[in-house]
Known about the structure:
Layout: E1 5-12, E2 15-26, E3 33-36, H1 37-42, E4 49-54, E5 60-72, E6 75-84, E7 91-92, H2 94-99, E8 102-105, E9 110-113, H3 120-131
Parallel strand pairs: 2-7, 3-6
Antiparallel strand pairs: 1-2, 1-5, 4-5, 5-6, 8-9
Amino acid sequence: MGATYVDVTIRNPAEPGRTWTAPFLVYTGAYDSLVPRRHLEAVGLRPRGSREYTLADGRRQSLDITVAEIEFEGERVGGTVVYGEEGAEPLLGVTALESGGFEVDPRSETLKRLPAVPLKWLARLGREQRAG
């Protein structure tokens, strides 16, 4: 299987006119998206904390994170973005992908829009409220 890339715009939620756009590798092995630090700083985003991540080589590392708007394929979602090192390849993680209502089609190596975004817990919650 090859790699899937998609054009993504990272937007500062507090200043929506400040953006950065680039091709991102769609990486379903990562929960969160990753952008080189200098691009996040250029759009005015600042770290909001840090999180422990397991890297591809198995090492664990604490990395700075922030919250940004992530726009791709006509959808705009909010998500956690990891501050990557200089030269790091931008990654679109699975949480943004699923929040936007997409999955990767491995045959065509493109994004495929889901017919609906799963929200199954609401159906169960509704039954519990009616029964109670």
